Amino acid sequence: MAGSATLSNLETPVARLEGKVAIVTGAGGSIGARTVRLFLEEGANVVLVDRSAPALERVAAELPPVMADRYVNVIADVAEVDDVRRYVTTALDRFGGIDILFSNAGNDGPILNVTDYPEEVFDLIQRVHVRGCFLACKYTIPHLPRGGRIIVTSSVVGVQGVPGNCAYVAAKHALVGLIRGIAKEVASKGITVNGVNPGPVDNDFMRAAEASMSRLLGVDAAEMFNRKIPMGRHAEPSEVARAVLFLASEDASFTTGSCLMLDGGMAS
Predict the structure, then answer these.
(1) 41: domain CATH number?
(2) pTM for the full model?
(3) Domain around 59
(4) What burial letters (b/e) apply to 139-161, b meaning 16+ CB within 10 Å?
(5) Distance between CA 75 and CA 154 in Å, rounded?
(6) Which of 52, 111, 149, 228 lies 20 to 30 A from 43 at CA?
């Protein structure tokens, strides 16, 4: 039929991150691993950063062999300056630049009232989340071109509080502040800085937190959260990864200083 499209004359879709170089911290966790896979599928070269060698090995084992020359694993503590410089240098030496930073590394602690919360654990959580993100931005921004992207994993608790988790809540609020402040610093350079703020996610990290919260509150925390989420369920890690891809792509070229809520309406 005249004027109808056929497979032969349709344009081949262009990978959204073709030729880009991305750093993903916390790459060994579920959100990091899903994002790494998605970035690779969309054409990026990726530096996977995590402090756990076994976690990085598990992620690599699940990637197709054809992708092996487009990623590299770096074992690093995101809060140590020398380690941060090393993963930045790895990206530059291996792939020739940096276009995208996904600052995703995080940790959690016990679910306890603030009066019982261990001071050393509070400090450790700030160190990984806040200092880790600060250092990642500090040492990658000088290498980002116009159109560079920074995405930071905060949380629904970055905009609200929950009982028994003062350290994590404080860290995630601090990340929102970093996102908004740094976004204004680098906007004139054409670099965007945004956050993803997931609610409860169906992964091991969240299940461990909910087990502790259940003991503190005397209720099933997973069910409690599902009742609070208008969509009635936890997010899938792949849903968070797709949001990160959006913010890393040209589709988000005029989005900066924002926090994309991925909470099923929980904080609305």
Answers:
(1) 3.40.50.720
(2) 0.92
(3) 21-262
(4) bbbebbeeebbbbbbbbbbbbee
(5) 22
(6) 52
